[in-house]
Design goal:
With 186 residues, the chain is mainly alpha-helical. The protein is globular, with a radius of gyration of 18 Å. It starts with 11 loop residues before the first helix and ends with a helix.
Length: 186
């Protein structure tokens, strides 16, 4: 069963949990936390790179989610709306730590060839996520936003306060590093 597909497809129980959480009911907040926490933790971990930081962002994200529930209009997926909150919470934390400033603006795109297709077929999703977590913060953040979240380079540039060229170069460098890691392991 897919939860929170959109308002028209929310179950009565899910709608009640959202409405109850809006009223500050702890039981409803706990139910929403239980439903969303695993997926949102995975999002936080992808951006932060380590469990402790991801757990902090998860908690901060839920505080924000519960404080902004009234702004959920019911348009689109509730889970997608929640995911944006967690991504933004992670980005704010990275900005505060000034980890996104250590990016380079590269005008010329790197020529990156694709890895051995058999190596890509052998890598597990878990191994790939571990490799992504080892990327430098700027590379990891742009890679997550572009590849996993579907943001455009323009949206990434605006969100991170960098140029679109920097976004593109960070993505290409992240891909190159991942390809190197995959080749070394497989």
């Amino acid at each position: 069963m897919q939860l929170f597909k959109d308002k028209k497809h929310l179950t009565t129980r899910e709608t009640e949990w959202i409405e109850g959480a809006k009223r500050g009911e702890r039981r409803s907040q706990k139910a929403l936390y239980d439903l969303l926490s695993a997926k949102m933790f995975a999002v936080c971990l992808r951006y932060m790179g380590d469990r402790d930081s991801a757990e902090d962002i998860l908690q901060d994200g839920f505080v924000t989610l519960f404080s902004k529930l009234d702004s959920y209009s019911g348009e689109g997926s509730f889970e997608g709306w929640a995911r944006k909150i967690f991504v933004n919470t992670a980005l704010m934390s990275l900005r505060k730590k000034d980890l996104l400033r250590n990016t380079e603006d590269v005008d010329a795109a790197w020529n990156i060839t694709s890895s051995d297709p058999t190596a890509i077929q052998r890598i597990s999703y878990t191994d790939l996520l571990k490799m992504i977590a080892t990327l430098p913060p700027g590379f990891r953040t742009v890679f997550n936003m572009y590849v996993l979240e579907g943001y455009s380079h323009k949206e990434i540039a605006e969100a991170l306060g960098i140029s679109e060229t920097t976004s593109r170069s960070q993505l290409q460098r992240a891909r190159a590093l991942l390809q190197t890691k995959i080749k070394e392991k497989y």
